[in-house]
Amino acid sequence: MKTAIITGASSGLGREFALQLKANFPEVEQVWLIARRKPLLDELALALDVPAVSVPLDLTDDADLGALARKLSEENPDVTVLVNCAGCGYLGNVAETDPQLLSRMTDLNIRAMTLVTRAALPYMREGASVVNVSSIASFCPNARMTVYSSTKAYVSSFSLGLREELRARKIAVTAVCSGPMDTEFLEIGGIAGNSKMFKTLPYCDPRQVAAGSYAAVKADRAFYTPRVFFKLYRFLAKLLPSTIVVKLAKT
Ligand SMILES: NC(=O)c1ccc[n+]([C@@H]2O[C@H](COP(=O)([O-])OP(=O)(O)OC[C@H]3O[C@@H](n4cnc5c(N)ncnc54)[C@H](OP(=O)(O)O)[C@@H]3O)[C@@H](O)[C@H]2O)c1
Fold it and tell me: Which of 26, 34, 134, 151 has the CA that lies 20 to 30 A from 86?
């Protein structure tokens, strides 16, 4: 059965990816919605125009990653779309941040994203799409969000390498480099009200980011960066020495 898998579907951008799935991939016959909060996944499943299955998993938990691998092997779906959207980012200097929060960022943003992709790939055929949610934070390290920005640099780098590996199989891979979005991410990460940078930057609308990301993966683009402001930042971050940009990019 033609299946989409969306991680981080219970809120924010991931929820938007689910809501816009059918309009962009009408061939999809079912979607697996992955996150920890089952009630939110169930509520979303009822609102979708495509049959949806709630798959409540903590992607930082090895047992849950194993459960996903088992579900894939038992159901043998034709995974036509994979959206790796689950992610978290905590504000604070490395030396002052709870080590558990540091490992939550690396476990979810790097390890889980990598292992979910690895688990899904054997079930993907020619024409399938992978959308990996990175961030503008991947362009240059952001002091006070050093671990978060480093995890997103991994997501962008991983996506570009994977895109090359999957070229022969005609599977498209796009990394999405959004600027700030007004989602639960800001509250959970202790960012809301505590970062001058987040107060100053223009915001991205998750609806537009989801729509633009789907358009980008269909056009086989390696990266999608919404808003001219952030496209310009991406360009400058490539052009200027990172030792200079890092001073301007403090969160
Ligand atoms: N908001 C921004 O400013 C911004 C900017 C650039 C990039 N991004 C990226 O956009 C992506 C989506 O974030 P968002 O802004 O939509 O924030 P969000 O509303 O907080 O969404 C995060 C999603 O990840 C899920 N999640 C968190 N921990 C999980 C775990 N251990 N296992 C499984 N799922 C987990 C959450 O669901 P549960 O809590 O139900 O598990 C939720 O569905 C993230 O990768 C983030 O890094 C965000």
Answer: 26
